[in-house]
Write a structure and sequence with these properties.
This protein has helices at residues 43-50, 55-61, 89-93, 127-137, 172-182, 197-209, 214-217, 220-226, 235-254, 269-280, 289-303, and strands spanning 5-10, 15-21, 24-31, 65-68, 82-84, 87-88, 97-98, 107-109, 112-115, 122-124, 142-145, 150-153, 156-158, 161-164, 167-170, 260-265, 283-288. The protein contains eleven helices and 17 strands.
Length: 304
């Protein structure tokens, strides 16, 4: 099977594509044209424009396009639905659906994953491709995908198969932005400047050690600044540490016997999480998000 295909990660804000020829990434394209910036019925044209540099080769060789991310949501090109957990990893790789199109090539779209339990209902789109790739690259107890909505996944390994039976979402990144931009905690702060490592460390350590809950500790971002215990330029870094530290504290409560963690994402965020993991006593390894994504697409293509 000739490993020529286009891998597309189409999220809410960004559109990214990679040209894979003979199994190797030979070029990439990106544009700030996530689904929230693309009108209904315009997805085909946007994709065609992005892929223009490779188009002649794609049509001549009938190179398929594999798409994942929010493009498959109910606000995207086509609602691809969700695969219900528990699910074997091999079934995730095989889950693509064809996309009706007037383009002279085959388009494939990945569904998301869903935990269909009333008490712990959850969904993900895009991270499942990174998970496929991360599982092939790195063995760990837990896979953490930091970001706006961090995902935690603990695979179940039995014999030669790996099963995903659940996952958890932490709104760490979104809370950070909301608190800085739309709450009293961020009012009057200077424009976000250099990262303050000591302030970040204090935020993480307090989250891990304090007997106060997060909703109580968050107000320190304001009260300490007003009373002179924290300089204004340190507030953002402290708040980041407080939220990431709380996420790791919850992670430890959820899986107290696990001790190895794979951090799948982009710098500098993975670096902050790595620091927090070290403070929390986790053995953590960083895996670049693009590496995981492309390895995941490789598994998906092989399963077509």
């Amino acid at each position: 099977m000739k490993a020529d295909y286009i891998a597309v990660d189409w999220g809410s804000s960004q559109l990214r594509a990679w040209r894979i020829a003979s199994g190797e990434c030979t070029a990439q394209q990106s544009a700030p044209q996530g689904i929230k910036f693309v009108g209904s019925g315009q997805h085909e044209a946007v994709l065609r424009t992005l892929l223009a540099p490779w188009w002649q080769w794609m049509v001549a060789e009938q190179v398929p396009v594999l798409m994942a991310g929010m493009i498959g949501s109910d606000s995207g090109w086509l609602d691809s639905g969700y695969q219900a957990l528990p699910l074997e990893v091999s079934a995730i790789a095989q889950g693509c659906i064809p996309v009706p199109t007037s383009l002279p090539i085959q388009l494939w779209l990945r569904p998301g994953l869903a935990l269909r339990r009333k008490d712990r209902a959850n969904v993900m789109r895009g991270e499942e491709v990174q998970l496929l790739g991360a599982l092939a690259c790195l063995q760990a107890d837990i896979y953490l995908f930091p970001g706006t909505h961090s995902k935690w996944v603990k695979p179940v390994r039995k014999a030669d198969e790996i099963t995903i039976d659940s996952f958890t979402t932490a709104m760490t990144g979104e809370l950070y932005q909301l608190l800085l931009q739309h709450s009293l905690l961020g009012k009057g702060l200077p424009s976000e400047g250099e990262f303050d490592q000591p302030a970040f460390t204090r935020g993480v350590e307090e989250a891990l050690q304090s007997d106060e809950g997060l909703i109580n500790r968050l107000f320190y971002a304001r009260s300490r600044r007003i009373l002179g215990y924290m300089p204004p330029e340190a507030v953002a870094s402290w708040l980041s540490g407080a939220l990431i530290g709380e996420e790791l504290a919850q992670l430890a409560r959820r899986w107290p016997t696990s001790n190895t963690l794979a951090l799948v994402g982009d710098a500098p965020l993975t670096g902050h999480y790595l620091t927090a993991c070290q403070l929390a006593g986790w053995q953590a390894t960083v895996l670049d998000a693009q590496t995981a994504m492309l390895n995941g697409f490789r598994r998906i293509y092989a399963a077509l």
